[in-house]
Design a protein that fits this description.
The structure holds four protein chains of four kinds. By secondary structure, chain B is α+β, with helices and mostly antiparallel strands. In chain B, 35% of the residues lie in helices and 21% in strands. In chain B, helix 1 packs antiparallel against helix 2 (64-93). By secondary structure, chain D is mainly alpha-helical. Chain D has two domains: 1-57; 62-91. Mean pLDDT of chain D is 83; it is low at 96-107. Classes of the chains: A mainly alpha, B alpha+beta, C mainly alpha, D mainly alpha. Chains B and C meet through helix 1, helix 2, strand 7 and strand 9 of B and helix 3, helix 5, helix 8, helix 9 and helix 10 of C.
């Protein structure tokens, strides 16, 4: 066990770095539990309405572009990989790969947001799919389709907001990594941010089939 | 009971007495346990008061049999209460087959009531004594609640769906009708009266009212006005006779029962559930018919199924 | 007993370690943050209380003695929103929990002190938004924000009030998160789970509810705000939305929230009863696990708010059964506290009066809950004054009595000063009497059928309403007295010494007020909680 | 304390599986399985999430406490969704009164 008191990295309320590290990880896991319930409320509403309006939800889903959705899923999975590799580099105390992988993760995260914004939301808005703003839909079940788009924008919007926060936090971690603040004894910041990032990935893993693949494409 | 200081409202329906008995049972449990806890605390508080700072109380860490005792006794009591309360509730939720039906539409801040005979009243509900009455209710705006304390019934009145409750008045007289679900500014003014009358007086009241047409007739007229017959009478749309409360096969392979809720949805959102073998061509009538007119249309469609209700479970 | 009562002004402690407004607003010391909460919560309590006084005044006359129904609706909405989100939910966790959790486990601070400060700022932001909603015209949806009334039909400040509750919710989440991590990871050597004071078990259980329930409320309120802003139809039946879904999401949090209010109080009672009876707690593990059981079961019962809402009656039956289940752990607690008094050495200092009051009133509140968990009686009692009486017995008779008891119990620790005990006992008695006079008549009113949230009511209910209003004024006086003598005692109260009550627990082993780092050297725990006197060798 | 250092090859293996599963779930959408489409999609999503949690988030090597936190979050989610849907799925079963006799017949 490293001598925590010798290190300035130890906050005053902790006895040693191990305690501090465990507290940080546990804190993040508890926070993620909160996040599960936050998205859970949305998923519950989604589940109810999809069952009440199966036809409208399928029709709405068919208006989305599966290719872009799948592409974005792949982008996020790549970013999860680079994040995992960044944590590994931090564990091993290798600064250069750490910085590289953090930058890659941020870039992939930004790519996701840019794709979402330009190729999807902008397109959806121009097509007149924005509920409450310009929603127009000529086919049957227009109201149910609108409900689908409410959930689509809300769920992807809340998810994207989490992405933006994640990219911001990554930028701070990157700055710390650049200054050499991390070591094999002290990398818990990278690890907890990693947990958050993977969590966002998992949310998208569920959003993709639930939003883009309703009712099949056959 | 005590005239000046009543402890319960009038018992004016067949349900009331059963609910009151359960209430007395619960009150007895409450009083018993409150007394046990209060008296024990008082007794301990006096018997074991601190006499000197040097008191060395006997330390007791716990007692498993005692813990089991005061876990199992409440468990037994709540189980009894649950079974009693639930069976009574389910029984009270099921109206007798012969119940007469009256329709209620809640609206900020009034109750609009339609009798099948065609009479409409506002904030007053006239019913005959000793006759089961079922209320089918919906709301034009927010959630209301149709509560008659003397009958021990209440049910929320929810926009977009039909809820129902029933009662059989056992006493003539005038009883409070309250909106019990907070519904905005004049919630406290959304009150009315239920007037229970002798059957003869009720008949007289019915005939004395401004009697236009029955709900079924009004519905039939609407059916003409809206030209429903152009499809439903020609085979372009599914025929409506003999369907009420019967299973209907849908285009997606599922089956639904053609009940009030289904008919309502089919008039307002025709594309939601398409009957098998028919094209989805019906336009929506949302905005063209009021909640009252919807009820009239449904009443008419019901009348096309002779003896509806006798056939299903 | 403590004899070495050193005048606190002569040594350095957390209150005089630093001066100036900045040293308070930027503090990360859990004790100072607790005091920030204490001040703000007291303010909100009196704001909410003022609304209650006006409501009770209005109800003296059947036609409304004071205000129009529209104003009355704003008053009860404000009373509910302020009292629930800005007083009751943060009361014990954020004030006493913040102060005591690190001290009771022998730690220097919470795990995340800066997060703790952030919680307070979030709380204040939420509070200011809610106050803005009130001052800028009010909000009249009730604290329940039922749709579609709140989304479409009212023209008041729903969004800012909902946003206030939303932001305060995050404060609550972060506080809960902090406590969970602290209790798991920061316990002093020897402080095992089963040596922890029961207050900590209660706070831990509360935190579970805070972190798992609050986010669902956040989503529900977000949907209300979106619906109001864009009319997208999430809860609008005309579009295919379902207003009852909102009730599910709302009560999924808001029923467990009742236990956020009452569980910490139960923890306080366990501390006070043992101290003033000089007794080990009767059935430690039963009391401890009943807290966790309450936290878990509380999430399974929300549908009992919806028995007559148009919810499926089958769901109603399930929720009714589960609601009865939550009565069992509550009963276990009450019986164990009572048994703790047996063969004790009981003294009647003010905290003990509050604690005994709590046990009695909570018993009555809990038992009347059975009427509402029972489907058939709830069909008559739902949304009447019976419900109002019931939840005030839990929230005021329970949560507030526990809060006041706790404040009186730990006041010497927090400030280093004693308050005048005679006044404190008098206040406790006044509150107890006033409380019962206010809320007992409401049970009777409820069974007679008087609906809640009525500004105007039929004249036959007047007698009971006047009794209730009279009780409310007595209660109001009862709450003002402690405010005065507690503030007075900060300056003029006798010096308390580290342990004026002869209580057990790590927080009593450090000077009053404690030094900033809580303990001169970190304690090592070698005995169970409540080691008052020798353990009985033979368990009866 | 050093956390468990996972070999790079494991990460790449998981990464490959995740991409493959994404392709699979997209592909399955083009096959008509009726009601099963949704179930298959959810099963695949759950497997992907499990892989991420176990390997990328290191739960495979983490303490019991973290697993308890994770499982309770999932349990609470299950409570929310199951009890809410219980209401919606059984609402239609409410014993609706059967009596309709047209008003002319009633009296």
């Amino acid at each position: 066990m490293p001598d925590g008191h010798a290190s300035t990295a130890l906050a005053h309320q902790f006895e040693d770095l191990e305690q501090q590290h465990e507290a940080a990880s546990l804190g993040m896991w508890v926070f993620l539990a909160t996040e599960v319930m936050f998205f859970g409320g949305l998923f519950a509403g989604y589940a109810i309405y999809r069952n009440l309006h199966p036809a409208g939800f399928a029709a709405g889903s068919h208006l989305l572009n599966v290719t872009i959705g799948a592409l974005n899923t792949a982008v996020l999975i790549c970013s999860s990989l680079t994040m995992a590799l960044a944590v590994r580099a931090a564990q091993l105390g290798r600064k250069k790969p750490l910085v590289t992988f953090l930058i890659l993760t941020m870039l992939l995260g930004l790519a996701f947001i840019v794709i979402k914004l330009t190729l999807e939301w902008r397109h959806d808005y121009l097509e007149g799919f924005a509920p409450g703003l310009n929603f127009t839909f000529a086919g049957p079940n227009a109201k149910s389709v609108e409900l689908f788009f409410v959930f689509y924008f809300l769920m992807t919007g809340v998810h994207a907001a989490h992405m933006v926060v994640g990219v911001g936090v990554l930028a701070m971690v990157l700055a710390m990594a650049w200054k050499g603040r991390f070591s094999p004894e002290r990398y818990n910041t990278v690890e907890t941010v990693g947990l958050y990032w993977h969590f966002i990935d998992i949310i998208w893993i569920f959003l993709f089939p639930l939003l883009y693949l309703i009712g099949g494409r056959y | 009971m005590w005239q000046g200081f009543p402890l319960r409202p009038d018992q004016a329906s067949t349900i009331a007495q059963g609910v009151d008995h359960l209430y007395y049972f619960l009150t007895a449990i409450d009083l018993f346990f409150t007394a046990v806890i209060f008296l024990t605390i008082f007794y301990f508080a006096i018997r074991y008061r601190r006499r000197s700072e040097k008191d060395q109380p006997t330390q007791i860490e716990g007692n498993i049999p005692l813990e089991l005792l005061w876990t199992l006794i409440p468990l037994g009591l709540v189980t009894i209460t649950f079974l009693w309360g639930t069976s009574l509730f389910v029984q009270n939720a099921r109206p007798p087959a012969a119940a007469a039906e009256i329709f209620v539409v809640g609206k900020q801040w009034m109750w609009k009531i339609q009798h099948p005979e065609g009479i409409e009243e506002i904030n007053e509900l006239h019913v005959p004594v000793n006759r089961a009455v079922k209320l089918t209710m919906t709301s034009e705006d927010v959630i209301h609640d149709f509560s008659v304390p003397a009958f021990r019934i209440k049910k929320d009145v929810v926009p977009g769906m039909y809820t129902s409750e029933w009662f059989e008045a056992t006493k003539t007289g005038t009883f409070h009708l309250f909106c019990d679900q907070y519904c905005g500014t004049n919630h406290a003014l959304m009150k009315g009266e239920v007037i229970v009358m002798e059957p003869a007086a009720y008949e007289q009241w019915l005939s004395g009212g401004v009697r236009g047409e029955t709900m079924t007739q009004a519905g039939a007229k609407l059916y003409d006005q809206l030209a429903c017959i152009t499809c439903h009478g020609t085979g372009k749309g599914p025929p409506l006779s003999g369907i009420y409360n019967r299973p209907v096969k849908l285009s997606d392979g599922t089956t639904v029962t053609a009940d009030d809720a289904y008919l309502r949805e089919s008039i307002l959102v025709p594309s939601a559930k398409i009957v098998e073998g028919y094209p989805p061509i019906m336009p929506t009538y949302k905005g063209q018919v009021t909640e009252e007119q919807l009820l009239q249309l449904i009443a008419y469609i019901r009348s096309l199924t002779p003896q509806a209700g006798k056939t299903d479970k | 007993m403590a004899t070495a009562a050193v005048n606190p002004d002569t040594r350095v402690h957390y209150l005089n370690a630093d001066y100036g407004i900045k040293s308070w607003l930027l503090t990360t010391d859990h004790k100072r943050i607790a005091l920030l909460y204490l001040a703000s919560i007291t303010m909100f309590f009196f704001v909410g209380g003022a609304a209650a006084v006006l409501m009770r005044l209005n109800l003296i006359e059947p036609n409304g003695a004071l205000v129009e129904p529209a104003t009355y609706n704003k008053l009860f909405s404000m009373h509910g929103i302020v009292m629930i989100f800005f007083f009751l939910i943060p009361s014990i966790p954020a004030v006493l929990g913040n102060f005591l959790v690190p001290m009771m486990i022998g730690a220097r601070d919470l795990a995340f002190p800066r997060l703790n400060l952030l919680s307070w700022y979030l709380y204040m932001t939420g509070g200011i938004l809610a106050l803005y909603a009130v001052i800028g015209g009010g909000v009249d949806t009730g604290w329940t924000f039922y749709t579609p009334l709140s989304t479409t039909y009212v023209n008041t400040n729903v969004i800012s009030a909902a946003l206030g509750a939303f932001v305060a919710g995050f404060s609550s989440i972060l506080t809960g998160l902090n406590f969970i991590v602290t209790i798991h990871k920061m316990r002093a050597p020897g402080m095992t789970w089963f040596r922890m004071p029961l207050f900590l078990w209660a706070i831990y259980s509360t935190s579970i509810i805070q972190i798992l329930g609050t986010p669902v409320l956040a989503i529900a309120l977000t949907l209300v705000a979106l619906e109001r802003l864009f009319h997208v139809g999430v809860f609008d039946p005309a579009v295919g939305g379902d207003p009852i879904l909102f009730q599910h999401l709302f009560w999924f949090y808001s029923h467990p929230a009742v236990y956020i209010m009452i569980l910490p109080s139960m923890g306080v009672i366990s501390e006070i009863v043992t101290c003033f009876a000089k007794k080990r707690i009767f059935g430690y593990s039963f009391v401890a696990f009943s807290s966790v059981a309450i936290a878990v079961i509380s999430f399974l019962v929300w549908g009992h708010h919806m028995f007559v809402s148009g919810q499926s009656i089958y769901a109603g039956i399930i929720f009714s059964a589960l609601s009865f289940a939550v009565a069992i752990p509550s009963a276990i607690k009450v019986f164990n506290w009572t048994a703790t008094l047996y063969k004790g050495s009981i003294s009647y200092d003010a905290p003990m009066l509050y604690a005994l009051g709590f046990i009695g009133l909570f018993t009555m509140g809990g038992l009347t809950g059975l009427f509402l968990a029972t489907l058939a009686t709830d069909q008559h009692l739902h949304d009447t004054y019976f419900v109002v009486g019931h939840f005030h017995y839990i929230m005021v008779g329970g949560a507030v009595m526990g809060y006041l008891g706790g404040i009186h119990f730990w006041w010497p620790k927090i400030t280093g000063r004693l308050y005048p005990d005679g006044w404190a006992r008098l206040a406790a008695a006044i509150i107890f009497v006033g409380f019962n006079l206010t809320f007992f008549p409401q049970y009777l009113l409820g069974y007679l059928g008087m609906p809640r949230r009525y500004a105007i009511y039929p004249p036959e209910f007047q007698v009971l309403n006047v009794m209730s209003s009279a009780g409310a004024s007595i209660q109001g006086v009862g709450y003002l007295i402690p405010l005065i003598y507690l503030i007075w005692s900060i300056r003029y109260g006798p010096v308390a010494g580290p342990n004026p009550w002869g209580a057990k627990g790590l927080e009593w082993e450090t000077p009053s007020p404690p030094p900033t780092e809580n303990f001169k050297e970190l304690p090592v725990v070698t005995e169970e909680a409540y080691a008052y006197g020798e353990k009985e060798t033979h368990v009866a | 304390m050093l956390g468990h250092v996972v070999p790079k090859s494991t990460y790449f293996l998981i990464f490959g599986s995740l991409l493959a599963l994404t392709a699979l779930t997209t592909g399955m959408a083009y096959v008509d399985l009726g009601q099963w489409n949704t179930i298959v999609a959810l099963v695949i999503a759950c497997s992907k999430a499990t892989l991420v949690v176990l390997f990328f988030m290191h739960v495979r090597w983490s303490t019991h406490l973290m697993r308890v936190v994770l499982l309770s979050a999932l349990l609470w989610l299950a409570i929310l969704i199951s009890l809410t849907t219980t209401d919606f799925f059984s609402r239609g079963w409410t014993p609706v009164p059967q009596s309709w006799e047209s008003s002319e017949v009633v009296r």
